[in-house]
Prior knowledge:
The complex is a heterodimer.
Chain A: E1 2-9, H1 22-36, E2 39-44, E3 50-55, E4 58-63, E5 72-80, H2 84-91, E6 101-106
Antiparallel strand pairs in A: 1-5, 1-6, 2-5, 3-4
Chain B: H1 2-28, H2 31-52, H3 58-76, H4 81-89, H5 105-113, H6 120-130, H7 136-142, H8 147-164, H9 180-195, H10 206-222, H11 227-240, H12 266-281, H13 287-299, H14 309-322, H15 326-340, H16 342-354, H17 363-374, H18 378-391, H19 395-410
Amino acid sequence: MKYLLLICGESYEAPEGSDDDSVEKTIAWAEDLDKRGIRLVGNRLADAATTLRARDGEVLVSDGPFTETKEQILGFDLLECADLDEAIEAASKHPWLPHGSIEIRPVWPV
Amino acid sequence: MAGLSTDAAVAAFREEGGRVVAALIRLTGDWDLAEEAVQEAFARALERWPRDGVPAKPAAWLTTTARNHALTRLRRSSLESAKLREVATLGAPEEDVDPSGVPDDRLRLMFTCCHPALPLDGRVALTLRTLAGLTTAEIARAFLVSESAMAQRLVRTRRKIRDAGIPYRVPPAHLLPERLSGVLGVLYLLFNEGYAATAGDSPSRHDLCVEAIRLSRTLAALMPGEPEVEGLLALMLLQHSRRAARMDADGELVTLEDQDRSSWNRPEIDEGVALLDVALRRGVAGPYQLQAAIAACHATAPTAAETDWPQIAALYGELARRVPSPVVELNRAVAVAMAEGPSAGLALVDLAAESGKLAGYHLLPATRADLLRRLGRRGEAAAAYREALALAGTEADRRFLSRRLAEISDAD
């Protein structure tokens, strides 16, 4: 099954006081999953969101992420796993996890 | 003879049903199909065992029959052939190497079922349905929701299992703690269903209580130092200690107030109280410890009149703060009524009723009726007793309420 990991948090910056080697650690995490053959694609997202809405037949373009909360999607990874437990195991090792949260969504099967 | 083999089928189902369902889930990966196939196997056992005799290995017979049924169903719906081959070639499923260290098969299956990616209510309900064999109606009553709402919840939970790809796999030992709350919920409701059966002629199903206590003991040994495990076991022991006094010779329910306290089981009370002391000393209170503390107040009162009602009311207040629930509020109302008088209690009952979440719960009008009776408001009390009668699920409850209704009607 394919699972999309949505890496969420308030900011790209690691909180003060923590080691700011999260980029290196994340690269190592991704390489590990690549070696296991369960990561299909993934990347950090640029902090430049544009949101579309359609109201009364008109498409409205606005700046910023659609979420009302402070948390936003900072990155994503698409995994191919046997089941949810494998996806949880892989995601639980993401170095960003202590600073935010990771939502695991199964991709609609085709 | 027929009766004996029917008993054997019921016993085999009760003993092995959960294991057979689990085997079928592992085999087919389909919870609905697994459950249906096992029900079908049970129906065949009821039909054939009286005729052909009880098979030498009842559980294996049930598994094979269920597997064949599942196979037929899969063929009919022409699912992918790989799954079909898998089901067709596997005999009795081999026991995998157990990574959990849980020493009891049934408890291990409960941990397997209580996956943390499922909503807590759904996980508990599905485990009760799949492994403990409780009916959807019984589980609905335990959660105070309608049968159709509970059926929906079970459907949604099974759908999440399928859509999210949640495996039915025994968890490794280090992942047991995150599943503990679900397993405790299952054991608690299993005991409750046994202690106060919500439907049928018998007011209790003693076998469920004994099994829930046995599994809780196993759990306490497996995870020593978990205060809520100790609290739950203490709660069960304290409740169970009263079983001989809860019914009179005619099978009628006896209220706590009127019970013969000398027939309470002392060793169980002593063990429950000691366990609770150990748990509370760990300094992390929780809902099961609080309920055990309430049960201990009752169990250690020499007479009904000497019950420490203010303490019980305070404990219910603390319980309501941690797990807000209209049922807890109703119980607090009863305790307040005993501590401060029936009118103070009645005000709280009406407050709990306002939430609307207790609609259809017979103990709401029954409690109101009792308080109104004690206030001498007999007409209103009689109306409330009639309302409770219409909602009560067991014969014993109905007889008790009828008796009370007759008493206040006779008093005129």
